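Researcher: I need the complex structure. Ligand is zinc ion. Inputs:
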Amino acid sequence: MTLGELGGSAPTAQALREMVRRYGLHLTPGDWEGTERDNEPKWHNRTRFERKKMEREGLLVPARESRGIWRLTETGSAEYRRRRDPIAVPPQPTTTTTRDQNTNPLQPDGNQSPTRVEATTQRVVRSTAVAEHVKRVHDSTCQICNTRLATPTGAYAEAAHIQPLGRPHEGPDVPSNVLCLCPNHHVLFDLGMLLVTDNLVVIDQHSGAPMGHLAERPGHQIERRYLEYHRTWWRRRKNSVNAGGH
Ligand SMILES: [Zn+2]
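Model: Output:
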């Protein structure tokens, strides 16, 4: 980072001075003790060690080529920009990384230390009370498949809004617009793969066949107009996709 701010290169002495200025406070007294060989402060050695490491990683121009100047390579400069400004420059592939011949070539490398950025988002604030109420009434049991996922911290279920809260749906966050579902059926319901009739028959949109009845329990009434909204929305989408495709 120091080198990046110095414009990508600096004579050894300047680089070392800059390191002291920036990181001086982090050096321990022991780091200032001279080595037995040449009485140079130990942290100089530490810095050299770091330099070697950066060379091996392809971030720094090797010492023998740069004659007393510490200079970042292109990869090193890109890495510096990436750290300084995580959004603007995506992570550069490290050229020195050797790929195992046996690994699947389609599998992405991923990132061992993903960059974290602060972001401000707007989201609908859901009432946990509504979700918790519906899950409690159903004892965290899926209203479609009757599955109850037991976990060490209690049963797991999801509260699924029938008419979604976000735009353009603007559905209400009330118990009569919420289903208690397992994660799989929550996803299928949200993607319109499952529609529910006013008689609470669950229809699989893939086959068009009924899958069974949506389970109801006393204390949780589903309003039919939300089910109708969900059906209409997805039928309209399906029709427009079909019309566009043929
Ligand atoms: Zn389920």
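Model: Summary of the prediction. The chain has two domains: 2-84, 128-245.
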